[in-house]
Amino acid sequence: MVDRAFGETRLAAVYDRFNPWEARGDFTFYLPLIMDARSVLDIGCGTGELLRRARGAGHCGWLCGVDPAVGMLEVARAQEDIEWVLGDASALRGRGQQFELVVMTGHAFQVLVGDAELSSTLAVIASVLADGGCFAFETRNPLVREWETWDQRYSDVVSDAEGAVVRCVCRVMEPVEGDLVSFTHTFTCDRWEQAEVSHSTLRFLDQDALGAFLSDAGLVVVEQFGDWDRSPVTATSPEIITVARRGE
């Protein structure tokens, strides 16, 4: 789950402990796509774990990660043979770079809550796609109402590199109305003077609304799945996983 609180350096340092590779079906899905592309842009790359894994698996092409959180990129920049850019998609404007694959993982796409922000981000993505390139991302299926279980799914306890215990409690703001879900993450640790509280909002688009935004940006859906096993999208699918290309 995307959480802007992890912009804090001490929280970014434990992000991958709250979200371990082994529990992430999205990384298992995206890694083969990355390995098949010579140039890859990861928007909302976080700590850079996915691109680091790709490099470690033998990817020898151009890998670039973009994230607006300073703390996240401090962790990511430990891997020096990958390009790291501080900012959102707009930071790519005017750079003249193109990529065979653009990804947004960890439901980063849902952070784009406003129509203008969503449209401008998709326009940038379309502009940086090389001929024949793909944009792959996921958003949660709103019909499943997954947020109703977040207080259990995203409340957890981990230990940092020094053995300090960090607790996270997730709370969704009720009632949920429309396609926006707001929530908080409260992080505590006995070694901290005070708790860290994050306030976040994610947007839940259905297939039709998502398709309209993609079409307006000149992007065409070529594949869509309802889960990481590549099963079709249904009313009970947890995800809407999309692979799109720039239209002719």
Task: Write structural notes for this entry.
It is a single chain. The protein has 248 residues and is α/β, with parallel strands linked by helices. It folds into two domains: 4-141 and 204-246, Vaccinia Virus protein VP39 (Rossmann fold, 3-Layer(aba) Sandwich); 144-202. It has eight helices and eleven strands. The protein has a seven-stranded mixed sheet with strand order 3-2-1-4-5-11-10, sandwiched between helices. Strands 6-7-8-9 form a four-stranded antiparallel sheet. Strand 6 (156-159) and strand 7 (165-172) form a beta hairpin. Helix 3 packs across helix 4. The longest helix is centred in the middle third of the chain and has 14 residues, at 115-128. It is globular and about 55 Å long. The relative contact order is 0.15.
Strand order of the largest sheet: 3-2-1-4-5-11-10
* Class from helix and strand fractions: alpha/beta
Poorly predicted runs of 5 or more residues: 1-5
Count the beta strands.
Answer: 11
Total helical segments: 8
End-to-end separation in angstroms reads 34 Å
The CATH topology of the largest domain is what?
Answer: Rossmann fold
Q: So, the CATH homologous superfamily of the largest domain?
A: Vaccinia Virus protein VP39
Identify the overall geometry. Answer: globular
Roughly how many Å is the radius of gyration?
18 Å
* SSE pattern: HHHEHEHEEHEHEEEEHEE
Question: Number of folding domains?
Answer: 2
* Largest sheet geometry: 7 strands, mixed
| Mean pLDDT figure | 92
- Can you tell me the CATH class of the largest domain? Alpha Beta
